[in-house]
Design brief:
two-stranded antiparallel sheet, 9% strand, homodimer, DNA-binding
DNA sequence: GACAAAAACCGACTGTCAATCGGTGGCTAT
DNA sequence: ATAGCCACCGATTGACAGTCGGTTTTTGTC
């Protein structure tokens, strides 16, 4: 019985992903060096997290000599879109009105500039859409 | 050891909320009548879910005679805004650019009309903002 | 080829949380 | 008083992240 239908990541998993996006491909040791010390967790823990991320298809890895080097399977933006999309899908069952309202609401309380940014980007996307049609 | 930073609801809990938003205040029995049968769960299970929802502050309740009548503590839209906002906050640590990009991306793949809707609503909100300033 | 170091892997344990019931005990209306 | 209804408590299950310890595998080096 799946508690939540949307597969959301944990805190450490997100931190690892962020690290990978920032630093590009890295091995477990490098990631641990950056965020393991602060958190007081072992290299092993970081390894486990990265392995799970790999199993979920979020990290690609390749063996360099005998060690793994991981890299994000999705771009930061793709992942964000995916995640937000999942939540939105589970929450508002595909109802565009509600979705739009939620977006605007969130953007609004993030600051007025955000709304303007949103507007600008939309204009951009719509232009692109029209052209490609 | 918090598994996920965002407190997201379960499947049943969401269904209960949806039901309450649709039908207005109801007691556990009524909710169970609507979605318990299909799911093959007992009234008791629905009661538990509603109680948890109440403890989380998402359902208000008042005792009518000896039974509780529950009603949503937040409007549907408020809740959606809240939930999406939480996820966005945890995911993109307050970076407006990424947020905007994600919104547009999700809206885009929800259909082209959605983008237009979003645009319209934004124009609306910005007008309102300007007026109130 | 043997060996030490490094890293991956496996398995276990913990904490949290939703879902799900059963049983118990308290009101309520008759 | 008493039969029902219903809330509450507690227990169980299942999932999943975080966290390690211990074991095995791989490698580079004498």
């Amino acid at each position: 019985m799946r508690p939540t239908p949307w597969g959301l990541l944990g805190e450490l998993e997100l931190a690892v992903l962020d690290r990978l996006w920032e630093a590009g491909e890295s091995d477990a040791k490098a990631v641990h060096a950056k965020l393991g010390r602060r958190r007081g967790i072992t290299l092993n823990t970081v390894q486990s997290a990265m392995k799970r991320l790999h199993e979920k298809g979020l990290l690609a890895r390749s063996k360099i000599s005998h060690a793994f080097v991981y890299s994000p399977a999705l771009g930061r933006d793709d992942f964000h879109r995916e995640a937000v999309g999942d939540v939105v899908a589970a929450l508002l069952h595909g109802e565009a009105d509600a979705m739009v309202a939620a977006f605007v609401g969130v953007a609004e309380r993030a600051g007025d500039d955000t709304l303007a940014q949103l507007e600008a980007l939309i204009a951009d996307r719509r232009k692109a859409t029209r052209r490609s049609r």
